[in-house]
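Page 47, continued from p. 46.
Same chain as before, 128 aa.
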Amino acid sequence: MNSPSHRLGDLQLRILQVLWAAPDSSVADVHAVLKPERELAHTTVATMLRKMEARSLVTHREEGRSFLYRALVAAEDVNRSVGRHLVERLFEGSLADAVSHLLTTRDVSREELDQLAKLIADAKRRTQ
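Result:
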């Protein structure tokens, strides 16, 4: 279970989220989505996409005079990597401490608790 580790800054993660929702987006497309959330220059988005491409997080293809970007990493892989990193760094590897923290610091619905109970039951069956 050695999947690659994805260390991402907030902006990098947000750019990936844009590309997962809309593959083959230009710098202008990504910039337009991010502009209401944060004040970024077009050139900042372009630079970040180039840096992300150098790290094999995204790729591009040329269409006319535009570069169209798409994510090379799956959302599930990034979520897994970030989650694992969070548990390791903040909770010294203790999944129980991480879950306990989440359950005591946010409102949890009955449906979410039922879903968690099912996930725990499934995990118990897999380890028997």
